[in-house]
Fold ATP-binding cassette domain-containing protein.
Amino acid sequence: MRNPASESPVVPIATPAALEWCGVSLDLGEFAIQEVSVRVDPGQWVCIVGSTGAGKTLLLEVAAGFLRPGSGCVLRNGQDITTLPPERRRIAYVPQDDLLFPHLDVRSNLLFGVRRRDTAVMERLASIADDLGIAHLLRRKIDAISGGEAQRIALGRALLLDLDLLLLDECTSALDEETREIIGAFLAVERRSRDLSVVQVTHESAGALRLADVIVSMDKGRLVNRETGVRTSPVERIGGIG
């Protein structure tokens, strides 16, 4: 007969993070990110808030592969991706400045980077364009759209890549409040239905509270008060935000 007391305890296996910055530092001379560590669990929405110039965008660019940290590493599903080029990281990134292609129409911009062009993809394109309120713009040139429309196109392009990690850098800053609420509700549905992990950068902490599971704050290249504070479902406040 087995003696339960003599058996080794079962140690649960931790689920790898969808994305993790581990002690990341980056010195650009006039500004530096200093030993930043943030974990994004699968299916989690993490909001990084802070004033302009806090280092939020740089942190996303390190994760996306456009900047390489001087020290520390970036993990994706438990794998070190610090030295991988952006196209091999399987991360959808919506930059603050949209980065649309002016020689392509809206439809071609949405499909840029999408390899398959089958019926399912075309149906997904039509659905996303309708939900983002840009279906009427598909044949329009980029120089004939507004800043808010450009942000929605960039967001739609990222979603069409059908990846499970989405980085958003002030992606609704050019939208009015009503449209921002509509896009936020749409993203919340996308997150649940497609099991997305989301990292959102914003300086508007009030809006972040409505969508995020976890909120961290940055100031002058550092995380502020990284200890977990009071848990207020569904938001875990870190750094006194909210």
